[in-house]
Hints:
It is built from four helices and nine strands; from the N terminus they run E-E-H-E-E-E-E-H-E-E-E-H-H. By secondary structure, the chain is of the alpha+beta class. It has a single domain (about 5-175), classed as Nucleoside Triphosphate Pyrophosphohydrolase (Alpha-Beta Complex).
Amino acid sequence: MMNAEELFPIVDENGNVIDAATRKECHSGSKLLHPVVHLHILNETKDALYMQKRSMLKDIQPGKWDTAVGGHVDLGENVNMALMREAKEELGLTDFTPSHVVSYVFESEIERELVNTFSTVVNQNEVKIVIDPEEISEGRFWTFAEIKENIGKGVFTPNFEQEFERIFPIITSEQQ
């Protein structure tokens, strides 16, 4: 279960830590800018993304399909530390080389995040992803065609849909 009193760094748009606030404060409409990490996992042929279905226990967007790995940067952590921790916690993934794709500000009705987006390529047949049932109810590779077919149908988190449109041209050209 989520800890509402967990501390997150509050950052400026360049990622510089300027304060700290609880998860509850950050997710209550305060619009305090806090950093998160996302990892997009492409298959070896670079035509599909591994995605997670968010647990029904999540406080934001439960039960929706989302980025393979996503999580908050904890107070005292840097972005790379958070990325490696989240990949291990959520998927048991430890042996990968992330590439930074883009950083941007995402805002919803209840929060404002500085999203640090990374990608990596894995051999789909060799990857043995172990999911954390408190975080993720299931996971699988989705082809880009399947993703495009389901955008706007309430299948994915709004954040994923916006990010996919932003990063799809970048990750498919850079990963060639």
